Amino acid sequence: MVRLATMNLTLRGLANVRILRRNVLTTSLDPARQAELGLPLNGYNVILANPPFSGRLDADRIIDEVRIGSTTATEILFLKYMMDNLVPGGRCGVVIPEGVLFGSTGAHKELRRQLLENHAVEAVLSLPGGVFQPYSGVKTSVLFFRKPEPHEPPGTQRVLFLHADNDGYKLDANHDTPIAADDLPGLVQAYREREASWQRWQRWQQYNSPLPEGEGPGVREEWTENWWFADLETLRANDLNLSAGRYRPLSRNQIEHRPVAELVDELKAIELEILNEVDALAEKLAAERTSGPAEANPAP
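Structure (tokenized):
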């Protein structure tokens, strides 16, 4: 697998390709070993990742550096590792299952708290369901964040949410038939020009803020773009939920009906989260039954 991946990257023009086969969730490297392998000692400038979804590890194998609560879910642990291994100014783009963005367990909430307080979350791109077919039908998003420089304010001030309904390919079981509809180029532009996008969003909010009674209509135009923002105060009021659909603006007289397929994908993610927690509880109870209380030796 390492050889195949190395060849794949080399053929695409990447220089200095070096791939190490290692599980960062279960093994640690001391500085001497890192230097021997040519790994940076202080972290990485850029991390791009599509880690495994819905995996689980034995709790006793997880290294302390990536532990967060009692979770054994790999999608949470991998993201924790990436957060902790960026240098100041370092950037990360990672594909994650949607449940990471809105999960209600203690580990999910603590992960999002650390992410928003210690890193600058720049954007969340909600991908259409089935975008990774035929390999996976899990609803996913791409999370973009960076570690602030020492002179920058810590944490996240605002988040750009991007929503793609189409990615240029028919969203069927094969996902290999090109179509004209493709939201990604416009979303890439909104991300690259996010300061200008933020100014436009602010102007729209100011223009459409409710006016005192008798001074004019409250909402004068609908927001028609497939991107929008939420500031930190809004995120906190919503339990640090980072799901793009949570903050999508609706018109005063229109209720958005989300696609049934998208709702089904979200329900699957929630069900998987519940099953993972039930499995973890069952493992904990089984371990307690196996160890059991120590019996005292009877007095002679």
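The chain has nine helices and eight strands. The CA atoms of residues 6 and 189 lie 31 Å apart.
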